[in-house]
Amino acid sequence: MNVLVVGGAGYIGSHMVKMLSLAGHDVVTLDNLSNGYEDAVKYGEFVKGDIADTQLLNRLFSENKFDGVMHFASYIQVGESVEKPSMYYKNNVTNTQVLLDAMVEHGIKSFIFSSTAATFGEPEYIPIDEKHPQKPINPYGHSKLMVEQILADFDHAYDLKSVSLRYFNAAGADADGELGERHIPETHLVPLVLQAASGRRDNIAIFGTDYDTPDGTCVRDYIHINDLCSAHLLGLEHLVAGGESKAYNMGNGQGYSIKEVIDVAKKVTGTDFEVKLGERRDGDPAKLVADASLLQKELGWSPQYADLETIIRHAWEWEQKYQEWKV
Description:
By secondary structure, this protein is of the alpha/beta class. It has helices at residues 11-22, 54-63, 78-83, 85-105, 139-158, 189-198, 225-240, 258-269, 293-299, 308-326, and strands spanning 2-6, 26-31, 45-48, 68-71, 110-114, 161-167, 169-171, 203-207, 219-220, 222-224, 246-250, 256-257, 274-278, 287-288. Helix 2 packs parallel to helix 4, helix 6 (189-198) runs parallel beside helix 8 (258-269) and helix 8 (258-269) packs across helix 10. The longest helix is centred in the first third of the chain and has 21 residues, at 85-105. The N and C termini lie far apart (38 Å). The relative contact order is 0.14.
């Protein structure tokens, strides 16, 4: 296949580009580098640009016979979306529509969308399956749900087929140690904990220890970055083979508490670091776990790196390498 990956210089996108390339596919990465790094694009062709640039999109679509487009170019910080909703709606919704319009004009029929379980809002039951009501509680979740709705309408009107994948916590790093997570600022728990282990942070904070969970801390579903990418590849193969549009929830089907993540990180790294206890934060549900059984049944997906220790070990290998690279 010949694939355009937008946002391919970011955390998930760069891993996706590598997986596609190693599977024998031709890849072009389009990224404006607002949250990505050109040196993370180690395979295929890199083009610096924005998905809102219609002229650039028309040139790319004219010069390349793409079988499909993968979208990882959204802004993803929940807190920032509350403070700057206009920025999130413009990039995540308006700019995505520009991309979809260009695809329709050039007859490209397969679209993979990196969505989010934030479209569900506060969980009404656990684990969360595809039938769970979608009631997002922040602009980030709203923006992703809007794109899902646009995709349904584009399928009906223009026969543009799509697979949307909703997940909670991407974690870990490339098993080969070539790629990893580089967010500035970092907001994800696993890299924050490992930064405390490596000394890049003074401590790690737990916000709330009185939740209705086994150890009182929030429980989340962590999915290895490579497992996440494999689901996106299966989704693209499904569409290119003539499959219908679909939205899937994705996760390991089990949750790990914040204390468990910290304990495993201490075990993997062989270090002890300061853990501070704080008050609950607004909007933090006690437990978020996805039901990925439909994805497993229909696309044959199964996680290779489901255990937390492996996820953290790969992330730790990258954290150590990143430290050397920074120096």
